[in-house]
Amino acid sequence: MSAPVTILAPFTGRVVAFADLPDPVFAQGIMGDGVALDPEEVASVTALAPCDGSVAKVFPGGHGIAIENSAGPILLHLGLDTVALKGVGLKALVGDGDQIAAGEPLVELAASSIRAGGTSLLTPIVAIGGQRVEHLATAGTQVRAGDPLMVVHPA
């Protein structure tokens, strides 16, 4: 039986409840349960691996990374409308199939230029395999990179 996995904050920011996201796919939990982070107002943000695992998929342009871990797949979706950037301001540091450790750099974001273009950097972290999620971080609170956000229990 697989053990639960603690998901860590990929960067420093403010915790946002899914229900408060302006994107209905995430807000309604259509893809799964999870938590979102709004990164601190800095020029650049490096998203770190939220858990140990392997990179199942780096989405074109680097706006999303699916990570397979012992509790099932997790999606890190960097920003809400970042797919429209087609990779501008995003630099993936890992590739499909890479083994990763919690805290390892995954993607560099040119946060100030992305924000200047009007794109939200609200980042949903979603358990996309139907897993049960136990929330640890409270919406509205500030967390630092590496702080525990949630525990994902295998489906």
Question: What would you say this structure looks like, in words?
Answer:
With 155 residues, this protein is mainly β. 6% of the residues lie in helices and 41% in strands. The chain has two helices and 14 strands. It has helices at residues 24-27, 111-116, and strands at residues 5-8, 13-16, 33-39, 45-48, 53-58, 64-69, 72-77, 90-92, 99-100, 105-109, 123-127, 132-135, 142-143, 148-153. An eight-stranded antiparallel sheet has the order 9-5-6-7-11-3-2-13, with no helix packed on it. The longest helix has 6 residues, at 111-116. The N and C termini lie close together (11 Å).
Cα Rg: 14 Å
Unreliable stretches: none
Instruction: Decide which structural class fits the backbone.
Output: mainly beta
Q: Overall mean pLDDT score?
A: 95
Separate helix tally: 2
Percent in strands: 35-45%
Distance between the termini: 11 Å
Spatial strand sequence of the major β-sheet:
9-5-6-7-11-3-2-13
Number of strands: 14
Largest sheet: 8 strands, antiparallel
Helix percent reads under 10%
Secondary-structure element order, as H and E? EEHEEEEEEEEHEEEE
So what's the overall shape?
globular
